[in-house]
Amino acid sequence: MSRIKAVFFDVDNTLYDTAMQVESARRNVVLAMIEAGLPVEEKVALERLKKIVKKYGSNYRFHYDRLMESLGLEISPRIVSAGLVAYANAKSAYITPYAETVPTLIDLTRMGLKLGIVSEGVPVKQWEKLIRLGVQHFFDVVVISEDAAGKTPQLFHEACAKAGLKPSECMMVGDRIDKDIAGARKAGLMTVLVMTPRYSRIKPKDDSETPDYVIRALGDLIKLIEDVNPKK
Amino acid sequence: MSRIKAVFFDVDNTLYDTAMQVESARRNVVLAMIEAGLPVEEKVALERLKKIVKKYGSNYRFHYDRLMESLGLEISPRIVSAGLVAYANAKSAYITPYAETVPTLIDLTRMGLKLGIVSEGVPVKQWEKLIRLGVQHFFDVVVISEDAAGKTPQLFHEACAKAGLKPSECMMVGDRIDKDIAGARKAGLMTVLVMTPRYSRIKPKDDSETPDYVIRALGDLIKLIEDVNPKK
User: Touching check for B74 and chain A: CB below 8 Å?
Assistant: First the structure.
């Protein structure tokens, strides 16, 4: 077995609680729009907004305009803007690392490991998260898949190549069986599922999606790496 | 002379220091982009960014992409995103009312006056400012001109009509001779130039652009209205 020389991380729900951030932001938006005059109950607006985000995708810019339209209302810049401000405030308040994220990144760096990000989505948005989390300087390698294929074995090979390492020398840490574990295992990396509050409870389809290790929180990585790396 | 029953305000540089906010935000953006790897000196980047904002307008979404291109660099999501986060942070930090803004709005409200906004620009952006300033609930009337014509006499007539008042019963307060004073005088409103830190030092072209009153700060409005309104 090769020595692990690099650890790659997923971003969303792995380095911070994305699901909580999204839910808090959405609630903040709806309350602010109601405060600004949206004549709808919170629950109704929330469910409608969820549908609109699903329909238009999370990177669409006019969710709140569409929300008003879909409620049969005239679009009001005052109400739309209240939503936009509330969203920006919630983003700045809730994109914060888990308690163990930064200490773990520091410990891994001290251990001489290279760190990286293997992510998918709009690059500027993924970088925004790393910067708001304040962790961007830890990573030597950042690869972000922009296309629908997502976290393919090729993407993991690209990350390993950028780190100057073989796949067997790299470890992928993420919360999703279907994305982080499946792709990385096929690419030949060591895989670790982290059971953060929203980790995927999806069952592996077969052995090719079964993580090599499961940890309860990011801090457990330190001991895991000490265990798997042959003593010098 | 009619009794003044409503006071309309300009937003930018009248209710808060927009110029300082824009300059601080721009500097914050450039420093963050350099910290993220932009290989240019602060002064060079600042001047180039100013030109790009001028060329594409302030509502364009890709200033930082164009900045990198114009410096002969490949667009980096990391660096662009650092700029976007820095801009958002500066916006949330610097869109704050002048010390006298809120107390004055409260005093005028206590005096039984209707308050309004006569502004120009993208409505969602102007509302965003009012909401971030936390003053949106003071205003019964908000009119925002979206077209290049700006603050025409018609726009002021629209504001008066919405307030249910004659132009002679309304007062316009702003920092710009060419926009706030010229248009409002032509429409028949009483006009007040407020010498906030960045008020326009433009000379009135003729008597039609000369303000009825000049005040040093928003707080002076209280005494001015007491003076101009006939005692009951």
Answer: no
Q: How far is A61 from chain B (nearest CA, A)?
A: 11
Same-domain status, A113 and A164: yes
Same structural domain, A115 and A221:
yes
Instruction: Please state the pTM of the whole predicted model.
Output: 0.81
Contact B84 A132 (CB under 8 A): no
Best residue in A92, A124, A142 for a mutation probing chain B (most B CBs within 10 Å): A124
Q: Which residues pair with A194 in a beta bridge?
A: A215
Q: Are A89 and A196 found together in one domain?
A: no
List pLDDT tens digits, range B135-182. Answer: 998 999 999 999 888 999 999 999 999 999 999 999 999 999 999 999
Convert the pLDDT of each residue in B87-97 to its tens digit.
999 888 889 89
Angle at which helix B18-35 crosses helix B63-70, to 10 degrees, equals: 50
Question: Which residues touch A110 (CB under 8 Å, ≥6 apart)?
Answer: none
User: Does A82 contact chain B (CB < 8 Å)?
Assistant: yes
Among partner residues A36, A85, A128, which is closest to B81 by beta-carbon distance? Answer: A128
The CATH number covering residue A102 comes to: 3.40.50.1000
Confidence check on the interface: ipTM exceeds 0.90, yes or no: no
From CA A71, how far away is CA B57, in angstroms rounded?
33
